[in-house]
C-alpha cells in the first residue's frame, strides 16, 4: 500500500499525484468517491492529475482525451489505450492506493 494523503487534503473535485512503483499515480476525489489511475495519459505524456474532473471522468489537459476513472478506459480520441486503475482505501482518515510492486515480475 502507498500512502497518498490525508482524506481531508483531497476534497471533492480535486486530485493528487503520488509516486507509484513504476510511474506516477493520480488519486481523484470524484464527488466523494476515490479513484486512482496511472497519472500519464496514454496518448501523450501529460499529467491526468492536472486535467479536468467531471463526475467520474477526467479530461487530459493536453489534447482533451477523456478517461473513465472507474475502468481506466478512454471515452474519446485521441487516446486509444486505457490507463491502469488501482484500488483505493481509507483507513483512519488516510487515503491509500494498493499499487504494490509484483515481486514475481522481472
From TrEMBL:
InterPro entries: Rieske_2Fe-2S, Rieske_2Fe-2S_sf. The keyword Iron applies. Keywords: 2Fe-2S, Dioxygenase, Iron, Iron-sulfur, Metal-binding, Oxidoreductase. The keyword Transcription does not apply. GO terms for molecular function: 2 iron, 2 sulfur cluster binding; dioxygenase activity; metal ion binding; monooxygenase activity; oxidoreductase activity, acting on paired donors, with incorporation or reduction of molecular oxygen. Residues 2-97 form the Rieske domain. Pfam families: Rieske. This is 3-phenylpropionate dioxygenase.
Amino acid at each position: 500500500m502507498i500512502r497518498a494523503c490525508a482524506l481531508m487534503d483531497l476534497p471533492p473535485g480535486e486530485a493528487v499525484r503520488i509516486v507509484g512503483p513504476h510511474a506516477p499515480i493520480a488519486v481523484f476525489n470524484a464527488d466523494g468517491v476515490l479513484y486512482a489511475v496511472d497519472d500519464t495519459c496514454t496518448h501523450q505524456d501529460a499529467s491526468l492529475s492536472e486535467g479536468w474532473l467531471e463526475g467520474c471522468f477526467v479530461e487530459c489537459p493536453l489534447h482533451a482525451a477523456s478517461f473513465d476513472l472507474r475502468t481506466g478506459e478512454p471515452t474519446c480520441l485521441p487516446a486509444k489505450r486505457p490507463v491502469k486503475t488501482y484500488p483505493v482505501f481509507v483507513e483512519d482518515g488516510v487515503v491509500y492506493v494498493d499499487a504494490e510492486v509484483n515481486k514475481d515480475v522481472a
